[in-house]
Amino acid sequence: MAKSLHILMVEDIATDAELVEHELRKEGIVFTMQRVESRDGLIGALDEFHPDIILSDYNLVDFNGMDVLEIVKRDAPEVPVVMVTGVLSDIEAVELIHAGARDYVLKDRLARLAPAVERALNAESAERARKEAEKALLASEAKFRALVESTSDWIWEVNEHGQFTYSSPQVYDLLGYHTKEVIGKSQLELMTSDAASRFRQQMSSIAAQRMHFHLLENDNLHKDGHVVFLEASGTPMMDDQGKFVGYRGINRDITERKEAEKERKAAADKLEKILMQTIEAVAATLEARDPYTAGHQRQVAALARAIAKEMKLPEAHVSSLYLAALIHDLGKISVPADILNKPGKLKPMEYELVRTHSKTGFDIIKDIQFALPIAQMVIQHHERLDGSGYPYQLKDGQIMLESKILAVADVVEAMTSYRPYRPGLGLDAALDEITENRGILYDSSVVDTCLSLFHENKFSFGT
């Protein structure tokens, strides 16, 4: 831009204004900036500073972007306004455009600011030329069209039958259609068959209730046949008599975001697989130190997972419980092997040392960022409902459900299996133990589910 601009910044956070100023100067825009943060400051600056363009935050202390647009429209209608804000919904964006904003830029997308300023100023310059020959009403309509068509999103209007009555030119950038090719078509004609079916179902109740809709994802077909993912938001339109006449809305291209989500999911799946392999390796290492309990953690994990699934826990909780069960005795790595494998009764000090394993296991994994609190599941797996457990003597309401499941699975597997200090007691004895202490030591619903699994032959160890 050849001349030095007067830019008025309506912003109550000085550091945000500095970021905006830095971005514009970086793009070679020459300007003088004045910052205001109140109604009076804005009104005074319009009268004394004579800005060429206004950059305004949407959320301010005692007024907002809509108030800014109202004041500017009243006192300096020839000055373009670009909203520069942190958070803005698509519905709010449409409303701002209707109210007179030239464009909007999110603060985490400031790279769009300089082009938006240039577009706004160019559009304003052209509009001023038209205003010399047009009436105020015609000029206002032209300004609205210029505002809509200067955004990167696709603005549209449809009638009560879902047929386009207006389309901004951005439809060509998104779907390869010229505006005149879209007018009269149904929204559903531009979507894939599956997306059209979903969108029709979603919109049937929304339109019947004349509701706003927000961020409805739909798969559209480009004119050349490839799929474009769009996100649609809209608001109902009424005529002067209050009769519903259609929707006005905005579509945003989210294709890159969808592809990024696929990549992130693939990366997350890979990391989860690596994590599982690592945990299984740790479990195998621990079992190598204690041959009498080889396979114990895996068997406990299998039973805990079966109980959790039968209790209809969310899949994420089932998976996290399974991981916790695979390493629930990890803390025993700090207990000497001769104590773990001692054939006789443990001395009090030896028993107390073994009891530290749940806390030790917690300390080992507490800093790993699991999706759910696996470390808490591990440290609580020897707690009991009546407070007789360890290490913290927690009671019923203080113990995680996953830890209650892990406790039952641990007891059943341990009693069933051989130990250095005793032979295996058998499944019947293990089930008698949890039955007798149902609601006392062990959670009733967990016990009932566990019993059901075995009695109905839905689970057996080693499967």
Could you please describe the fold and organization of this structure?
The radius of gyration is 33 Å and the shape is elongated. The protein starts with a strand and ends in an 8-residue tail after the last helix. The chain has 463 residues and is an alpha/beta fold. The chain has 19 helices and 10 strands. The relative contact order is 0.06.
Could you write a compact summary of the structure shown?
The chain has helices at residues 14-26, 39-48, 65-75, 90-99, 113-131, 136-149, 170-175, 179-182, 193-208, 255-289, 296-310, 315-326, 337-340, 348-355, 357-365, 374-379, 401-416, 427-436, 444-455, and strands at residues 5-10, 31-36, 53-56, 81-85, 103-106, 154-159, 164-167, 213-221, 227-238, 244-253. By secondary structure, it is of the alpha/beta class. It has a five-stranded parallel sheet, sandwiched between helices.
Our count of helices gives 19
Distance between the termini: 74 Å
Number of strands: 10
H and E string? EHEHEHEHEHHEEHHHEEEHHHHHHHHHH
Which word captures the global form? elongated
What percent of residues are in strands? 5-15%
Largest sheet: 5 strands, parallel
In the sheet with the most strands, the strands line up as 2-1-3-4-5
Computed Rg = 33 Å
Please give the structural blueprint:
Layout: E1 5-10, H1 14-26, E2 31-36, H2 39-48, E3 53-56, H3 65-75, E4 81-85, H4 90-99, E5 103-106, H5 113-131, H6 136-149, E6 154-159, E7 164-167, H7 170-175, H8 179-182, H9 193-208, E8 213-221, E9 227-238, E10 244-253, H10 255-289, H11 296-310, H12 315-326, H13 337-340, H14 348-355, H15 357-365, H16 374-379, H17 401-416, H18 427-436, H19 444-455
Parallel strand pairs: 1-2, 1-3, 3-4, 4-5
Antiparallel strand pairs: 6-7, 6-10, 8-9, 9-10
